[in-house]
Design goal:
heterodimer, A: 80 residues, mainly beta, 3-stranded antiparallel sheet, 2 helices, 31% strand, B: 217 residues, alpha/beta, two-stranded parallel sheet, 4 strands, 41% helix, disordered N terminus, disordered C terminus
Chain lengths: 80, 217
């Protein structure tokens, strides 16, 4: 469901690394419409290199941590 | 950027009798109308509103500063604070509501954190009180994740070589507070004196503990 998604556009489709598990929380996309979400969804902190988000970014070590719900994540393709 | 004290007039008093409604902005007028309807229909009471506002006003950056000062003086407490801020705060008699969850992130010699909420204005109110206006501005929210070093520079922060920036976007049910590094030259200070050095901005990541401003060396 679109609507009240809490995944910022600037990280969608980008590679990141899960660095922390933050527990189970109600899905905000359902909660915003007062729909039941008894099971909840897992929340993770994902670190993204800023150079992977902004092609012209100059500092390799800088990153942004974003909290993302599990259904917004998919495994990255294995590297060759 | 001294907006810490920009509380609205009558923020904790919800008796609108005598307020000249024609002097309000359209948004303030709409809020007042909604509030009056909610009270009129019994969905919320004036007392509940006042109690909530008073509880919000009691939260100030002094709470966060106490945790930081204790962490600086007690390594065991520091570990517990980073592992579970709620349990550590309870040790000092600070009651953090279970939600949103608060996590404290430590700055180190080679890592500096910067807290933002790009989607709205999520902020660790339970430890820092009300956010400054600039924290909610489009300028800060959009640029913190795009050019954090330029933003830090505008706040007067010079990064040493080899220091990486980790921006933290508060997108969900967690709120983040920065544990700044203890300034050099503070060995003689006790915990209360240290707490006075811990600024709000140092716990957001846009400032540093204010030792140089209070003590000449």
């Amino acid at each position: 469901m679109a609507g009240h998604a809490r995944t910022p556009g600037y990280v969608q489709g980008r590679p990141g690394v899960v660095v922390a598990y933050r527990g189970i929380w109600p899905n905000p996309e359902l909660l915003a419409y007062r729909l039941d979400d008894l099971a909840g969804v897992a929340l993770f902190t994902v670190d993204f290199n800023l150079t992977d988000l902004w092609p012209d970014y100059a500092f390799n070590a800088d990153r942004v941590a974003v909290d993302l719900y599990e259904h917004w994540l998919e495994p990255s393709k294995p590297e060759g | 950027m001294g907006t810490e004290f920009d509380r609205e007039p009558n923020a904790s008093r919800h008796d609108h009798a005598g307020v000249d409604k024609t002097s309000l902005s359209p948004y303030a007028f709409r809020v007042m109308a909604m509030k009056e309807l909610l009270v009129e229909r019994g969905l919320v009471s004036e007392d509940e509103l006042d109690a909530t506002l008073e509880a919000m006003e009691r939260r100030t950056p002094a709470l966060g500063a106490r945790l930081v000062a204790r962490a600086w003086t007690d390594p065991g407490f520091c570990d517990r604070l980073l592992a579970d801020a709620h349990a550590a705060a309870a040790e000092l008699g600070i009651d953090l509501p279970p939600s949103p969850r608060i996590t404290v992130l430590a700055n180190t010699d080679n890592l500096r954190h910067l807290i933002v909420c790009t989607l709205c204005s999520c902020y660790p109110r339970a430890l820092l009180g009300r956010p400054p206006d600039w924290y909610k501005s489009f300028n800060y929210r959009s640029r913190a994740v795009r050019e954090p070093r330029a933003v830090l520079e505008e706040f007067g922060i010079q990064l040493a070589d080899g220091v990486a920036v980790r921006v933290v976007d508060s997108t969900a049910d967690h709120r983040y507070v920065v544990l700044p590094q203890r300034p050099a030259g503070t060995e003689a200070l006790n915990e209360d004196e240290l707490a006075e050095l811990v600024t709000r901005d140092s716990m957001i990541g846009t400032g540093s503990p204010g030792f140089e401003n209070t003590v000449s060396t």
